[in-house]
Amino acid sequence: MSAAPLVGYSSSSSEDEDEAKAGAQARPGAGSCPRAQSPLPSQRLPVPDSVLHMFLGTEEGPEDDSAKHGGRVRTFPHERGNWATHVYVPYEAKEEFLDMLDMLLPRAQTYVPRLVRMEAFHLSLSQSVVLRHHWILPFVQALKDRMASFQGPEIQPKVA
User: Fold this and answer.
1) In this predicted model, what pLDDT tens digit does every residue of 88-147 receive, in sequence order?
2) Other CB atoms within 10 Å distance of the CB of residue 129
3) What is the DSSP string of 20-80?
4) How far apart are CA 91 and CA 152, in angstroms?
5) Helix/strand/coil percentages in the chain, nearest 5
6) What pTM was estimated for this model as a whole?
7) Which residues is 89 bridged to in the sheet?
8) What is the torsional sign of CA 7, 13, 16, 21?
9) Looking only at Cα atoms, what is the longest distance across the chain?
10) How far apart, in whole angstroms, are the C-alpha atoms of residue 86 and residue 136?
């Protein structure tokens, strides 16, 4: 550090000036080194092993068990404070659709055995994107504002 003050305030007392001169003389090399150089090498104290290993294994990461989520698998890793989001329109399946699904699913499972019948259906309007928590409400409001002028069948998009 340099002996020069960041801001030079005027003083009515000569004691302040005397203390500053005495402090500069008490530090070895004070005033003799340019500001960018330090007379003594900066050394950091080592961090004790007990501190370095204090919290090992306590950080809880997300549990990615696809069995708990209908077989769905993340396309990007979870980060705290991020929300995987997508825009979709719910679809209420009619009897004809469910009959066709019952007919096609066994055949499709011969090619992709992990396929399962879902309970609810939707039409995705976006890919999964990441939103920070504080972006969610402005995003939903902007989506509602844009959809307000949409002319077409009565659709209520959802954000998940």
Assistant:
1) 888 999 999 999 999 999 999 999 998 888 889 999 989 888 899 899 999 999 988 988
2) 13
3) HHHHHHHSTTTTTS-TT--SS---PPPPPHHHHTTTTT-PPPP---GGGGTT---SS---T
4) 16
5) 30, 10, 55
6) 0.48
7) 123
8) positive
9) 98
10) 11
Instruction: Tell me how crowded residue 87 is: count the other CB atoms within 10 A of its CB.
Output: 19
Decide: helix, strand or coil at residue 88: strand
Residue position matching structure tokens 């699913």:
105
* Look-up of token digits 């396309």: 75
**90: DSSP letter:** E
* One-character DSSP codes across 57-73: T-PPPP---GGGGTT--
